[in-house]
Amino acid sequence: MPRRFFLLFLGLMLLAGTAPAPEADPVLLPILMYHDVEEDGLGKDVVSPAELEADLRWLRASGYTAVTMGEVIDFVDGRRSLPDKPVVLSFDDGRQSVCLTVLPLLRKYGTPAVLSVIGESADEFSALPGENPRRAHASWAQLRAIADAGLGELQNHSYGLHRGSGGVFGCDRRPGESPEEYELRLAEDVLKAQECIWRETGRLPSVFTYPYGRCSALSEAVLRELGFRATLTCDFGVNRLTGDPDCLFGLKRICRSHGADLPSLLAEAAATLKGS
Ligand SMILES: [Zn+2]
């Protein structure tokens, strides 16, 4: 492992290794998944600001309290309790709309959000001169600002794996790739994202969000070895949190698309727990 990765690896390891808390009643955790929040192009990955605000209002009126993944990890480690009805609001890809449109709403409702950042997109959009509200992705300065405001918890969505071709996407293993080649490629990419998020924002993610929800039989072990405490997928459902750190891997989410009804979505997701 190159020295700079090794130093980062050591830092990550400091985040891991806490003994599990004693078994307690499981806490149910829905994790909502959003991408863009815009007036235009509404669809699966784009909801309007009015829809997001309606969600925030409904969650509050229904007794939900938004928490960060850091708080969820601390709960599993037995270091803190969680509110009665915790919920995580996750926004994938580090879209600029999250910094421009979502931040004021998070501030208005006092709601923290989890932002899963694609390293290469933040690098690319940070290199563009001037400001342009139509840009797809946020710059590092914008991400730093939302994190500094205490409203955006930055997490890792890979450096350059948010792409795909020939049926191979995200953290899929490529055809013909040996386990060692795959593990090295994944570790290098993920650590490159860790390094730039740390360098640009002073935050070190503890959660990996799978691009497109795509993973392999080897990916969870690689991410655990690198010190990650949790992984977020695109599988639909609600999670049971216990005192076992394993419960934080492969967390399910609820994709909130344009036109969807949040109360129905949450009820549908909760129904997946029955008999599981
Ligand atoms: Zn994504």
Describe the protein in words.
- By secondary structure, the chain is α/β, with parallel strands linked by helices.
- It has one domain (3-18, 28-271): Glycoside hydrolase/deacetylase (TIM Barrel), CATH 3.20.20.
- Helices cover 38% and strands 20% of the residues.
- It contains 9 helices and 14 strands.
- It has helices at residues 3-15, 49-61, 69-76, 96-109, 119-126, 140-148, 179-201, 219-225, 262-271, and strands spanning 27-29, 31-34, 36-37, 46-47, 64-66, 85-92, 113-117, 152-156, 164-165, 168-169, 207-209, 230-236, 239-241, 251-255.
- The strands form 4 sheets. Strands 2, 5, 6, 7, 8, 11, 12 and 14 form an 8-stranded parallel β-sheet that branches. The chain has a two-stranded antiparallel sheet with strand order 1-13. A two-stranded parallel ribbon has the order 3-4.
- α3 (69-76) links the parallel β5 and β6 (85-92).
- The longest helix is centred in the last third of the chain and has 23 residues, at 179-201.
- The protein is globular, with a radius of gyration of 18 Å.
- Residues 92-93, 157, 162, 211 line the site of zinc ion.
CATH architecture descriptor name: Alpha-Beta Barrel
Instruction: Note the total helix count.
Output: 9
CATH class division: Alpha Beta
Structural class given helices, strands, pairing? alpha/beta
What's the CATH superfamily, by name?
Answer: Glycoside hydrolase/deacetylase
The portion of residues assigned to helices is: 25-40%
Give the SSE order as H and E letters.
Answer: HEEEEHEHEHEHHEEEHEHEEEH
What is the CA-CA span between the terminal residues?
40 Å
Mean pLDDT: 92
Q: Provide the β-strand percentage band.
A: 15-25%
Which spans of ≥5 residues are poorly predicted at pLDDT below 50?
Answer: 16-21
What can be said about the biggest beta sheet? 8 strands, parallel
Number of domains: 1
β-strand number: 14
- What small-molecule ligands were found? zinc ion
The Cα radius of gyration reads 18 Å
CATH topology: TIM Barrel
Overall, the morphology is globular
